Amino acid sequence: FGVLISDLLDTLKKDNEYLILGGQGEIFERLEEVWPLYEKAVKTFAKRHISLRMIAFAGQNFTRQFQAQPLLEIKELPGEYVGPVATVIYGDKVALEVMDPDNISIVIIENRKIAQAYRQQFEALWHLGILLEKSSSK
């Protein structure tokens, strides 16, 4: 996970955004080796005014993520589609994260066309999602 955070910080410049499809909510927050790295990184994101739009699945709790990352917007889709893999889209890159506490795996693909295709899919799903209000996060 540290490699992904470093790559995000190296790739994203002031006023950029990154996208996550399949946000993990409290599962992510419980990963002891991951959460402190995330909290540190989001401070840099805030200084650079880097925003995050995330598509998650209904029934998850994002309270700590909303508290940690002020430039975060989350839209929800029905919960039956939830799974252990999240897709992170940033710059010309796509990262596939498996956030299984027993086996955290991340694959980063750097390819402009692949990133554009994932970005288009994200935008299509974004329009279908329901905005999760920060104050009403479960």
Rg, Cα atoms, Å? 14 Å
Query: What series of H and E elements makes up the topology?
Result: HEHHEHEEEEHE
Low-confidence stretches: none
Number of strands: 7
Number of helical elements:
5
Average pLDDT taken over every residue: 88
Tell me the distance between the termini.
26 Å
Q: How would you describe this protein?
A:
The chain is an alpha/beta fold and 138 residues long. The two termini are 26 Å apart. Strands 6-5-4-1-2-3-7 form a seven-stranded mixed β-sheet, with helices on both faces. A hairpin with a 2-residue loop joins strand 4 (85-90) and strand 5. The mean pLDDT is 88. The chain is globular and about 35 Å long. It has five helices and seven strands. It has helices at 2-11, 26-29, 35-48, 63-68, 112-128, and strands at residues 17-21, 51-57, 72-77, 85-90, 93-100, 103-110, 130-132.
Produce a short descriptive summary.
The chain has about 140 residues and is α/β, with parallel strands linked by helices. The chain is about 35% helix and about 30% strand.
Task: Name some characteristics of this structure.
single chain; 138 residues; alpha/beta
Topology diagram in text:
Blueprint: H1 2-11, E1 17-21, H2 26-29, H3 35-48, E2 51-57, H4 63-68, E3 72-77, E4 85-90, E5 93-100, E6 103-110, H5 112-128, E7 130-132
Parallel strand pairs: 1-2, 2-3
Antiparallel strand pairs: 1-4, 3-7, 4-5, 5-6
